[in-house]
Every structure is written in C-alpha cells, then in structure tokens.
Amino acid sequence: xxxxxxxxxxxxxxxxxxxxxxxxxxxxxxxxxxxxxxxxxxxxxxxxxxxxxxxxxxxxxxxxxxxxxxxxxxxxxxxxxxxxxxxxxxxxxxxxxxxxxxxxxxxxxxxxxxxxxxxxxxxxxxxxxxxxxxxxxxxxxxxxxxxxxxxxxxxxxxxxxxxxxxxxxxxxxxxxxxxxxxxxxxxxxxxxxxxxxxxxxxxxxxxxxxxxxxxxxxxxxxxxxxxxxxxxxxxxxxxxxxxxxxxxxxxxxxxxxxxxxxxxxxxxxxxxxxxxxxxxxxxxxxxxxxxxxxxxxxxxxxxxxxxxxxxxxxxxxxxxxxxxxxxxxxx
Length: 331
Fold this sequence. Notes:
alpha/beta; Spore Coat Polysaccharide Biosynthesis Protein SpsA, Chain A; 2 domains; eleven-stranded mixed sheet; 11 strands
C-alpha cells in the first residue's frame, strides 16, 4: 500500500488555460516533493481540460476531475478538493498564480517548529496578466526593514485583532493549512459566499489553532479586475463583507461592543464613498438590516476615534493589530 502524501496540492481552474502550464510547472518544480496534485476544472469553455490531461501520467497527479456544469462558486471547488485530499496539509494553488520553488519547503520548515498550526501564510507579490510586478508591498510588514523571518500567533487573537478588520490572508496560493481543521468547516456558511468566503474560511481556520506568518515573498498573486469590479459595482461584495463581520462576531464573542461599533463604522465610512446612488441605497439598506444600527451614528463613532487616536486609551484598528504581538512566539 502506497504511503499517503504529506501535502495535497489542489489546483481549482476555470478558463485559465493560458496560465496552467506555468502554474503546474511551478508546483512540480518544488524542492519539497512529498505531495499529491489534484487538478480540478469547473466546466471551462477554453482548452483548459486539454492542458490538464497532459499531466494525467505524472506520478504526483492523483486526480483530474472536470465538472459537467459550472459550480458558480470557487469555494465549492475548494471543498471538493479538500474532500479528495489525502495529505495532512493542503495548499490551494490557484490556477493563475505562481510561486517560488522553495514555497512548500519553507512553509513546512516553519510549520514543523510548532504544535497545533492551523494556517501558514507567506508574503505575496502582485503581478498583472503578463506576469509583471504591480506591487511588492501587499502586507504592512513588507514596508518594514526590520522584521523576523517568521512569527507564530495565537489563532484566536490573530482572528480577533487582525482578520476581524480585514482579510490579511489575501490569497489562498500563499497559504498551507491543516486538512483536519478544514474538514470541520465543510458545511459552514463560507461556501455560500461569492466574493468573501475565503475571508471567513481563514478566520474560522485560525480560531482552531495557531497562525504562522512567514515574512518572505514566495507567492505571486495575479490580479484580475473583472471579478473584483463586478462585486464592487453591484454592491454585493460590500454586503458579503457585512455578513462576514457578523459571522466573526458570532464566533468570537469576546469582541467588545465598542470594538464592534468601530468596525461597523469603518463599513459605514466605505458606503459614503460609493458613487452609484442606486448601489449606495441598496448597500445602506442591507447595512441597517444586518447591523440593526444607524449608519450615520456608526460613521460618527468611527470618525471620533480617528480624531482622538493619539490618546492611549482610544481604540483604533492599528492599535488593535499591535495587540496580537503580545501573543506571538517570535522565531
């Protein structure tokens, strides 16, 4: 009986034929080789399937599965891959992204230093459709000259002080995570989201264990404006943001009332910048419905904290993020 691989690499694809060979090559060229490769296609209309079939005899490839009908959600494909995976650790390598050959080796080096790791995240560089660098400073730490090689954080504190404010784990391609913890989330609400399911998924993952952040740029995150712009222009991504915030609050009851009001006020501030009046009205209606509060009052609460941020006892997002360092284990 063959030994199960230590890592399962899942490539969910939809119409990214032009990137598939480069992506798969970046996986097969990893210096860490104890992995299986699961190739998934969500009923692509380009020649993706033809390209995937070229790899069917590669010893790393354990599955090539093609949907007859598009699932309508990238997160349903995630779950499909997770359920097929045999490895203890999972890497969802998005079909259009790239990575350094040492990505897996580096992640496993730091994961094995700690117990109960749920999520391991590396630094990312944004690239365009042609692979040109757009931004090398995606995360706050990338603008610092002095930082350690990596840190390990208490997952609940990381979720409460970092992920609650924004999705700090922006790209699945830069993350290796614990399969056992992921299987517990198969029937959770995150799979029903269109735009923000990953934010909720990483938060629910973090709560279960520890979070390792590696301060090296080992991932290349390709930027496409079409899908993001669609969600923003329709207001649906903003509405999903509200729902994710509420789910996080439900799973982290330790978040104080004042902090919740401040977080809601941050969303109220974003609404003020929506130019399309129809979309602004739609998003505002959902804001009141979901948060059961006044958008104006929440915005003023947020603005007051901003003006008084120099006072040591006034909470801000930046101060809250700094709190998590009290619970980290530096390497």
